[in-house]
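G.,

No rush on this.
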Amino acid sequence: MTVYVGNAGTDAPAERGWLLGHFKPPGGPLHSTDVEIKWGVHPAGDRRAAWATGETRTALLLLISGLFTLEFRDREVTLSRQGDYVVWGPGEDHSWHVPRDAVVLTVRWPSVPGWRLPADSAAG
């Protein structure tokens, strides 16, 4: 395996924040069908353009800084302290909004092609 050294802030914009997953070039250290990792930098007022529905993966979203609210059909969860996180499984429709500038790390597994917003919409 090749060693890759990078910076999330520099590398993330190239793939809508996603650093690792099935969508990276096969054979490289960033390609994985097991897991996807995203570095999300969101300004206050940012909002997911559409609900994610029909999801088949499990996800973990970890707050690095700021304030980030996840919306599920039956409740909202606001992450406010560094290190707060939420995990949800397949079939949990979700969206999000950002009350205060936030940085989050998202991990999804497995890494499989799935639901995606159009390229001109807000990433999520």
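When you get to it, here's the other one too:
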Amino acid sequence: MLSIEDRIAIYELIALHGHLVDDGRLDELGQVFADDAVHDLTAFGLGMHRGLGSVRESALALGDANPLGHHVTNTIITAVNDDGVLVRSKGIGVRADGASGTVIYDDLVARRNGEWRIVRRAIMVHRKPLGRE
């Protein structure tokens, strides 16, 4: 069972990602991702990225294709197991041209050096209503 304090820390961890990326503070992503994090962008055709440096480099490689705003909503903890905590969130991205899109973040969050960090993130694109791919 997670404490209320752990739940709040996990929700704030998930929210912090958007603030750091949108502000261009990519050197601070270690506050969100573990050093050995896996970042799965295969739904975008961008492959798997392993390690904190690769997560940062993938954001830099996208350049102006990155959304102006990452808005994370509907965050729920779906399971607690020996590997950590499974967290699912919905994301809305707003681009410079005003276009927007939605994704689902599936995260494995675990304690690293006493702090919660994302150790695995898979981002799935949502293109059709009612859960149809």
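The beta strands are 33-40, 48-50, 69-81, 84-94, 100-112, 115-126. The mean pLDDT is 93.

Enjoy the weekend,
O.
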